[in-house]
Design a protein that fits this description.
The protein is an alpha/beta fold. The protein has six helices and nine strands, in the order E-E-H-E-E-E-E-H-E-H-H-E-H-H-E.
Amino acid sequence: MPTVAKVPPRSPLRVSIAAVVTVGSPSIEHPGYWWYRARADLLRVALEKYVAGRGRLLDVGSADGPSVDWLRDRGQRVALDVDPRGLGPGDVCASVTRLPFADGAFEVVAAFDVVEHCESESAALAEVSRVLAPGGILVMSVPAYQWAWTRFDEDNHHHRRYTRPRAVAAVRAQGMEVLRASYIFTGTFPFFAADRLRTRWRERGLPAVDRLVPTVPELPRVGPAVERLLLGATRVDRALLRRRDLPFGSSVVVAARKPMP
C-alpha cells in the first residue's frame, strides 16, 4: 500500500492536506550524481534572473534537493513534494495537481522535472497558474524528445517527453507569457542521443513497466573519467546560456509570467 503523509498547516499560506506517495526521486539517495549537479548549475544560469528579487516562492518537487539549492535563500520559500523523504520541518507533502494554497499565494513557482510525471499536464499547469500572483513567474524544466523514450522513463513514471514548442504551447495554454524557452544539456547531447537510441534498440519487444509498482529507479552508472567528460561538456551550455537560447538538448527549460489583470 502507498504511504499516506499528512502535514498540518503552519502558515497563512497553507491549508490541511493529505498526499499519497508512490515513488521517489533517486536524487535523494544520490545527490552527488553528475547529472543532478550539472542540472542545478544550468538551471541557475538559465533562469536565476527571472526569480531574483521576488518574494514568496513555491518550490514544487523540491525533495529533489540537488537541483534547487540555489533557490533555498530566495525570499519566503515553501517546499512541496509527494515524496516526504527529502522534506524538512515546515515543508508540505502534496501533489502539484492539488496545491493546498490560496489563489495568488506566490510570486514564483519552480517546477523542475515535475510536469512530465503528471497524467494531466493541463491540470498541473492550471494549478501552478492559480497559485501564482498576477505578474508572478513560473520556472520549469522537462525532459526532451519523445523519440528518446526508454524503460528509464517508465521506471521514473513519466507520461511524456517534450520539445521546446510543446513546452511553450503547454504554458501558453494557461494564459502565461513565455519569457524564455531553451534546451539545456546541449554539450552532452551526442552522448545522450547515442545512449537512448542504443537502449531503444535493445529494449524492442520488452513488456511495459507496471506504473502501479512503487520503485525508486536506478541511475545509469558512469566511471570517473566519463563523469569528468560529461561535466566538462556541460560547461559549453553554461557559457552559451548566458547569451542565447540553445537549439537542442536533452531537457527543456521555460520561464513564463502570469499576466496582470
